[in-house]
């Protein structure tokens, strides 16, 4: 019999005494580790926030009081205390309960959140609605120090400060972003920690917030005391809470970056079952960059707080030295900075995950493309996946390929990727985005090294009747489809996602009656529709394949391929159906 | 003979003495007013920055030293001093020289800029490039107080602070955004002004910057003195300069908001020749909101620092009271805040210009659409125009219509707009975006009031052979095209830009062989391509019309219509050519 057994809602927690809650905290940590070790997930942020979360639910009354968890990286204890502990105890529960806040799961959640730096803005909206509707309750945002550097967070703070009403912003300062923090504001956080919140020079006070500091946010009694004090406060308040990331799990306390998020692991040893194969696009990219930088100090690698996503370990970052810049959680700055590095004579490469490149549309358009600076953006992990609905990587093609001036390349193989990357880095004419492939494929006798003939498609196999235009990682799928077709089809690697090779497409009209497009992303607004538009006034038939416009949520990728008709069998069946 | 005659480059300025430069300042002001009064443009910001600009070019050596002007609202004096005074004196010059910085115009400009809050990030890139390439020069960003609230600016400051090298950020504090400022940071600017920069609580120092304050930035001698002092500084510095917006033109000094930007005007009286017709979509929207709010206090109008764009004058804003929120230059926050207002039980309407909605892709996707909160976003000024390349409004359809869950409506008439707006505000199921039309058109006997049958197109006229699907403001164009066609075409108002009415399109197959789509925006990734994709496997021919994927720059709208084949004659000609 554990205390966790007794807690089915925050009400149950309120009946416990301090000693019981301390035991409960240990049990919550075990539950977190249980889930993470079995299915992977955020480790350090959740372990560090246990006491703060218990104190919040002990003092406040959710869902009447409303807590908004930034980015959801620290929402597990909250989930455990709000009726969702099954998600941390049983396999079925883990499959059901996601790793992110979700109002469809519980009335104690208010938003589906997986991108950073949004909590303060969202809390502002809840607070303003409360005031207009003459309601009385507390609105609380919990935001990590790492998320503070995101522009949306700063916009939120600026507005929260003038709400003239109750809003409590808990800055959970664990001295880390996903990796280490970057930027001037972290100097101020350090000064505030060192002075126990007493320093006059205080960025939060400068904005007009009331401010309180808690030196040990893992001390439950302290947290309860301070939260009781600030409950029902009538003005905007920042509660700066110093916590230990990874608290209670030695490995995570020691190696904070590795244990921010982890694959399933053995709790005793910390060893993960998952290993990236030695040959992968991250290693290929890093090896290229390291060699290149050794010879050319004008090359700069830029990343926004997700180096691990690209295999840029602390060792590798150290090796790149001043030629690597982590700008913190600041994707917008990342793009503008990269564009200006190119204008200043450098050869910059901004590495960003497909899901997060969404934060930079206007910067890609205005700061980069409009200025035609020869910078390179590498978009990682683009494609259909079983990801959480907040981390889908299927929207980058519609997002990027319709911005004027940008050249968006989709290599199909290791050799083509390497050639495109080197061309993009060395050329001086275009702003180039490259979609890193997600499938290993080698091309023997590969020869190209020049991509300056924009929108020139490459015919990989000449056939008849049907042509398959397969972008990027779906080239392999085209080969599989071809195998199942009665007549040998033409297979085309378009290479460029940003335009149409009119001559190539016109040539197809001579001896083809059907063109199929395959792309590993949303069809709407994507590459294939450009082909459909081109052939709109012609006799050529066109079938576009890709992801449906939807936020899928942790659906197995093979199920998604079936749903979207992206298996060789279903594609061939669609062709046959059409030809009937 | 004037001093302006003598200045053809910053070198000429350096030969002048203080008295001469003061006269030059007056002449520059006259030149600014000359341009603005004749072709319209930014008035107040340019008049306020004259002395700072003279001092900058007197002390620094551009283009070796590099100045990045935020948003370009204050770049006229810089243009005048860097060989482009013709742009302020002659009609031909005005047509040639744009109102924004542009490296294609002059080596003294480094970026094409028209969206705010980007200068610090861009300057960071130039500074980092300088350091990597072992060059020595000053990098200077000039940013207005209004632009500070934009997330990208704050991301830039956070990174600039840790550059460990020369970067000079001039905060041009004229106590105004386009309208008044909003947010906590402006309390700190006020405190700093009131204490002549001496207050301990200083947001810039908190980030780690060196900091200096100039109380009268319109005092040339003071500005020259301080710039000489900071030239070649080795660390990141914020130079906080207090200036008077509109300086030297009484009307602009008095009514700062009206004179931020103005249409052509009479210099003596300040009267503008341009008048909006009484019936316009801004007035229709405001009248609706005012009436609605009188009865329903849960309605909130949100805007990000551009109330004038929507006819929300200071009087109107005052009338809306607490039901109007200007979040400052903070479009990302605007969307998240709006989404949360809806979650909190309010009926929020976020009004944003098409060009600036680009800054919110991820917020529209993650903060709004993923959460399916019943908020309303009104996109204003969408469509092809003769705007500067930095202010095009042609990209919102590809941007918005491919985000899952969002319902993007394109009304064709006053009556339909009013009905859609009221439906969107009152319904509780969808996140709705409405593209405000840009042409006045009335529909007699208009009856609809329910748009909950998503993607249901409306047949406006039943014809045969050819169907024209005309979205939003281009419905009028469809009528004109129909007039010129030998057979009466079917005309369809799709109403929804976010999807396809499959049943409607299938019905067309019975007695039509050609479908034409018209949309007032970029074709690539837009509405028409969805129709082309739908008919891809069928016998129906499709012709898509819309704007080419390009950054056009101050091209007369009628020329663009010709370029894009968007006149009735050219459309009919394209149809005839295709049918041959």
Structure commentary:
- Two copies of one chain form a homodimer.
- Chain A has 580 residues and is an alpha/beta fold.
- The first copy, chain A, has a six-stranded parallel beta sheet, sandwiched between helices. A five-stranded parallel beta sheet of chain A has the order 2-3-4-6-5, with helices on both faces. A five-stranded mixed beta sheet of chain A has the order 14-16-15-17-18, sandwiched between helices.
- In chain A, α21 (475-483) packs across α25.
- The first copy, chain A, is globular, with a radius of gyration of 26 Å.
- At the A-B interface, α8, α9, α10, α11 and α16 of A face α8, α9, α10, α11 and α16 of B.
Integer average pLDDT of chain A: 97
Top-tier CATH class of the largest domain in chain A: Alpha Beta
Oligomer state equals homodimer
Q: How are the strands of the biggest sheet of chain A laid out side by side?
A: 9-8-10-11-13-12
> In DSSP terms, counting alpha (H) and pi (I) runs of 4 or more, how many helices of chain A?
25
């Amino acid at each position: 019999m554990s205390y966790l057994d007794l807690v089915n809602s925050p009400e149950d927690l309120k009946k416990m005494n301090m000693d019981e809650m301390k035991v409960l905290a240990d049990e919550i940590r075990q539950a977190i580790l249980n889930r993470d070790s079995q299915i992977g997930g955020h480790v350090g942020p959740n372990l560090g926030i246990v006491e703060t979360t218990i104190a919040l639910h002990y003092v406040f009354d959710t869902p009447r009081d409303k807590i908004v968890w930034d980015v959801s990286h620290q929402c597990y204890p909250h989930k455990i205390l709000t009726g969702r502990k099954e998600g941390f105890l049983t396999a079925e529960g883990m499959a059901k309960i996601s790793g992110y806040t979700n109002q469809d799961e519980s009335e104690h959640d208010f938003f589906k959140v997986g991108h950073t730096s949004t909590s303060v803005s969202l809390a502002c909206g809840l607070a303003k609605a409360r005031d207009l509707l003459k309601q009385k309750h507390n609105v609380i945002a919990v935001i990590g120090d790492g998320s503070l550097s995101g522009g949306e967070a700063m916009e939120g703070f600026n507005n929260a400060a003038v709400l003239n009403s109750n809003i409590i912003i808990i800055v959970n300062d664990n001295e880390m972003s996903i990796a280490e923090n970057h930027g001037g504001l972290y100097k101020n956080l350090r000064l505030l920690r060192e002075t126990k919140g007493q320093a006059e020079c205080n960025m939060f006070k400068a904005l007009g917030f009331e401010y309180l500091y808690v030196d040990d946010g893992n001390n439950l009694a302290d947290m309860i005391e301070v939260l009781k004090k600030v409950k029902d406060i009538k003005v905007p308040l920042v509660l700066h809470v110093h916590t230990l990331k990874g608290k209670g799990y030695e490995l995570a306390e020691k190696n904070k970056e590795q244990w921010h998020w982890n694959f399933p692991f053995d709790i005793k040893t910390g060893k993960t079952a998952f290993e990236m194969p030695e040959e992968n696009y991250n290693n290929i990219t890093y090896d290229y960059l390291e060699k290149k930088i050794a010879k050319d100090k004008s090359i700069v690698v830029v990343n926004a707080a997700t180096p691990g996503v690209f295999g840029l370990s602390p060792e590798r970052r150290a090796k790149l030295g001043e030629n690597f810049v982590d700008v913190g959680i600041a994707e917008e700055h990342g793009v503008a900075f990269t564009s200006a590095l190119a204008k200043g004579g450098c050869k910059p490469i901004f590495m960003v995950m497909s899901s997060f490149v969404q934060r930079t549309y206007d910067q890609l358009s205005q700061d980069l493309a409009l200025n035609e600076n020869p910078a390179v953006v590498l978009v990682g992990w683009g494609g259909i996946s079983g990801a959480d609905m907040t981390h889908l990587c299927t929207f980058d093609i519609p997002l990027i390929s319709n911005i004027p001036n940008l050249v968006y390349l989709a290599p199909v193989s290791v050799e083509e990727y390497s050639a495109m990357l080197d061309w993009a880095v060395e050329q001086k004419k275009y702003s180039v985005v490259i979609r890193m492939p997600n499938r290993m494929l080698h091309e023997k006798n590969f020869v190209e090294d020049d991509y300056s003939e924009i929108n020139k498609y490459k015919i990989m196999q000449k056939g008849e009747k049907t042509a398959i235009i397969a972008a990027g990682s779906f080239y392999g799928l085209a080969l599989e489809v071809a195998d199942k077709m009665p007549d040998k089809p033409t297979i085309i690697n378009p290479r460029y996602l940003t335009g149409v090779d009119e001559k190539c497409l016109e040539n197809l009209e001579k001896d083809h009656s059907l063109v199929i497009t395959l792309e590993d992303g949303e069809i709407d607004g994507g590459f294939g529709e450009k082909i459909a538009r081109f052939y709109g006034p012609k006799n050529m038939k066109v079938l576009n394949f890709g992801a449906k416009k939807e936020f899928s949520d942790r659906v197995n990728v093979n199920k998604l391929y079936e749903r979207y008709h992206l298996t060789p069998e279903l594609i061939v069946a669609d062709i046959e159906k059409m030809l009937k």
